[in-house]
Specification:
With about 240 residues, the chain is mostly helical. The protein has helices spanning about 1-25, 30-35, 35-45, 55-60, 65-90, 95-100, 105-130, 140-150, 155-165, 170-205, 210-235. It contains 11 helices and no strands. It is elongated, with a radius of gyration of 20 Å. The model is unreliable at about 95-105 (pLDDT under 50).
């Protein structure tokens, strides 16, 4: 974890220097040459606590989503997580004063996100207990990704604020775009690993349809309970 923190710090400080140079008349070519480091920055940053990795894994464990749909959920989460920080920074002070209780956090959006995820958990629990069908469409997955990503990325917000303060918001947007790619890579890896192990378990039980049906309902019910518990805990905090 210390290595992850060190890498983040080094890339962030280096990008700060590139922003200063760019704002003082530097070329896009020099900035663009450094932008790919944003992918590394985003991927490493997403490995740190937060970013809804546990929530994502919990949802996918209790769902019937395959590899393709799990990637859709991860991409929706990543896009919302980073884009919201960019939007807050660009809209600047009016929205910041309403949503940000402290630097790098958005309490109102965090509460909304966790509340919506709690509702998803209740729905999963009800469906498992009522023996309803377990089809999870693309719209449900995208909606979950959007809800889980409603908490803005604090480091993206810092980068955007720094770029705006230097008068070059376009540089911040460019770096945020590459950072979003890195975040998506890490979250997609989490999603694919989760779905892979769930599918392997299902294959082990394929000769026992009643057992697998019972296990599926139990896992979905447990996942729903966990989402509700996480939502309650985070809202209370």
């Amino acid at each position: 974890m210390q290595w992850v923190i060190d890498v983040q710090r080094d890339i962030y400080l280096a990008f700060g220097e590139h922003i200063k140079t760019f704002s003082q008349g530097g070329s896009w070519a020099a900035l663009a040459a450094f932008l790919p480091m944003g992918i590394v920055f985003g991927a490493v940053h997403a490995m740190t606590p937060g970013h809804s990795k546990s929530v994502l894994a919990t949802y996918l464990t209790g769902s019937s989503a395959g590899m393709r749909r799990s990637l859709l959920v991860s991409l929706a989460l990543s896009f919302t997580h980073v884009f919201l920080a960019v939007a807050i920074a660009l809209l600047s002070l009016p929205l910041v004063s309403v949503t940000l209780g402290s630097v790098g956090r958005a309490p109102a959006l965090e509460t909304l996100s966790r509340g919506l995820l709690g509702l998803i958990g209740l729905w999963m629990l009800w469906r498992a207990l009522s023996h309803k069908g377990h089809h999870h469409g693309d719209q449900e997955g995208a909606a979950f990704g959007f809800m889980a990503g409603l908490i803005p990325c604090p480091l993206t917000l810092f980068v955007m604020t720094f770029a705006i303060s230097r008068g070059v918001p376009e540089a911040g947007v460019a770096f945020a775009a590459t950072m979003m790619t890195g975040v998506a890579l890490t979250l997609c890896a989490v999603a694919l690993v989760t779905v892979f192990f769930r599918q392997q378990l299902a294959r082990l039980l394929v000769s026992r349809p009643r057992t697998i049906a019972a296990v599926t309902r139990a896992v979905e019910a447990i996942a729903g309970l966990i989402l509700v518990a996480l939502a309650i805990r985070e809202i209370i905090r």
